[in-house]
Design goal:
By secondary structure, the protein is mostly helical. The chain is about 60% helix and about 0% strand. The chain has four helices and no strands.
Length: about 70
């Protein structure tokens, strides 16, 4: 399970999960990940809303699906 790549810049799943649990790193890495994927609108939404509901959803998604929440792909 640890050999599977996580969602934050190819880091391992365990490291990505730990980073998703920490609010500030989850917020920063969440919008950096979306901007690096070329999803500008999704990055802006994460920048504005990533510290509350999206953060909780990211933790749940990381545990269940092993990747962060992808609410919008624009």
């Amino acid at each position: 399970m640890a050999s599977r790549k996580g969602d934050y810049f190819g880091l391992s799943y365990i490291v990505s999960l730990i980073l998703a649990i920490i609010p500030i790193t989850s917020w920063v890495l969440g919008w950096l990940t979306r901007f690096s994927e070329g999803k500008i609108v999704a990055g802006i939404l994460r920048l504005l809303l990533g510290w509350n509901i999206i953060w909780i959803c990211d933790i749940i998604c990381m545990i269940v699906r092993k990747n962060i929440l992808r609410l919008i792909n624009i």
